[in-house]
Design goal:
Layout: H1 13-45, H2 50-66, H3 68-78, H4 80-100, H5 104-118, H6 122-132, H7 135-155, H8 158-167, H9 169-190, H10 215-223, H11 226-258, H12 262-269, H13 271-289, H14 294-314, H15 321-348, H16 355-362, H17 365-381, H18 397-416
Length: 425
């Protein structure tokens, strides 16, 4: 089948596509981690506990995760623009419902609808960037895209804490809902989909006509790959602990360990996305230009993350303010590098016609991890009583030990399948 070699990489509209979708992705990360900063307010407002709070927060991840296969299919069928635009409208409704929620139950529904809405951004973005940018640019652009998203995570720390102090957390979320609506309309009005097929990743592996393969045949083809399940396990095991910490427990944990108020603790929590912003594009550039073994990079990053979780779970009593700064920056930088290189491996080992489907089938796993762990760790933390409205440091020990086990499992898995991951089926 013929294709237009590199024609898509020179069209200036690719920067409009990248800019608008990256702006939408800002809100994806904002919502992903916002619960951590307003957790003390939510406990008071709804007169609830850590178990209920963990379940409420996890609904974002459950809805996000479960819809990903459908999002992948619709991205291939309808194009990225419609999926990003219309799903962002659903997120707008979720923001309004969450901001007006009279009970923790209604807040849970609103949180779930937010997760459903923002779940229609990442997979279409990856499909769109694969069409508009060249293969050798993909890891770099993915890194910058993730960096842009993590600006949202930064806003969900100290700026959100400040907004909550000034206007209240409810009004803050209504404002975010208005921003979501504007970006949804901008996507539908200004973004256009590319009209050519994705450039083959290998001259020896020409792209098939996607119409010649039925949906079920494509799904079975993806699910029958051992590499797919290794990727899935790595996404699940790495991001379960990461988003559980960043998105729910980081600010309360820092408040408890360092005896800080919510505003100052959220300022330290901001260092996680700052580290991500630095680590994602840097690791993508290194992988594209210098360090060509992405699997070796993943192994190094997993080893470093294991050390961080060991300190959080087993050595938290000795953490100082300076030590916490180093740990949080390192955690974010490692996560940025891991995300960039693992998705780049997925892109390199997946043929064009099923890239959206494969991404859609994989994308539930980094969200199912925190969906399960947030509720699980919430139940563990809740075994101890609160002191002055917050849980004591010892409440987090067993919860973080579970996270440490997840990361160690990822390290072992990556080492065992080291030679499999970079090869194509």
């Amino acid at each position: 089948m013929a294709y237009e070699k590199n024609s898509h990489s020179r069209d200036p509209h690719r920067w409009v596509v990248f800019g608008v979708i990256s702006s939408v992705y800002f809100l994806v990360f904002f919502h992903r981690v916002s619960t951590s900063v307003i957790a003390p307010d939510l406990l008071v407002t709804f007169n609830t506990n850590a178990t209920a709070l963990g379940f409420m927060s996890s609904m974002y991840f459950y809805l996000y995760a479960l819809e990903q296969p459908l999002v992948g299919q619709l991205t291939d069928a309808l194009g990225p623009r419609k999926v990003v635009g219309f799903w962002s409208l659903a997120a707008t409704v979720g923001c309004v419902l969450f901001g007006l929620a009279p009970t923790i139950g209604w807040a849970t529904i609103g949180r779930g609808l937010i997760g459903f809405g923002v779940g229609g951004v990442y997979v279409p973005a990856m499909k769109s960037f694969a069409q508009w940018f060249r293969e050798k640019e993909f890891a770099t652009m993915t890194g910058f895209f993730l960096a842009a998203g993590n600006i949202g995570a930064i806003v969900a720390t100290t700026p959100l804490a400040w907004m909550s102090n000034v206007w209240g957390w409810r009004s803050s979320f209504l404002i975010i809902g208005g921003m979501t609506l504007m970006l949804a309309l901008a996507t539908l009005v200004f973004v256009r989909d590319h009209d050519t097929v994705i450039e083959p990743l290998s001259k020896k592996a020409p792209i098939q006509n996607s119409l010649s393969v039925t949906s079920w045949e494509s799904v079975l083809r993806v699910l029958s790959s051992l590499r797919f399940w290794v990727f899935a396990a790595l996404f699940f095991g790495f991001f379960g602990p990461y988003f559980t910490f960043q998105g729910l427990w980081a600010t309360p944990f820092i408040m408890s360990i360092l005896n800080l108020d919510a505003l100052r603790a959220s300022g330290l929590n901001m260092l996680i996305p700052v580290g991500f912003i630095l680590g994602a594009p840097l690791s993508g550039w290194l992988a594209d230009r210098i360090l060509h073994s992405k699997v070796d990079i993943l192994l190094c990053l997993l080893a470093l993350m294991t050390g961080i979780w060991a300190i959080l779970a087993l050595g938290f009593h000795s953490i100082t303010t300076g030590g916490m700064i180093v740990l949080l920056l390192a955690m974010g930088g490692i996560a940025g590098g891991f995300t960039t290189n693992l998705w780049a491996l997925v892109r390199e080992t997946t043929s064009g016609p099923i890239l959206g489907l494969t991404s859609g089938l994989l994308n539930p796993f980094p969200l199912l991890g925190p969906a399960i762990l947030q509720g699980w760790t919430g139940a563990i933390v809740n075994r101890m009583d609160r002191v002055n409205g917050i849980y004591p440091p010892a409440a987090y020990k067993n919860a973080f030990t579970v996270c440490l086990i997840f990361i160690i499992s990822c390290l072992i898995l990556c080492a065992v399948f080291r030679k499999l991951l970079p090869k194509r089926d």
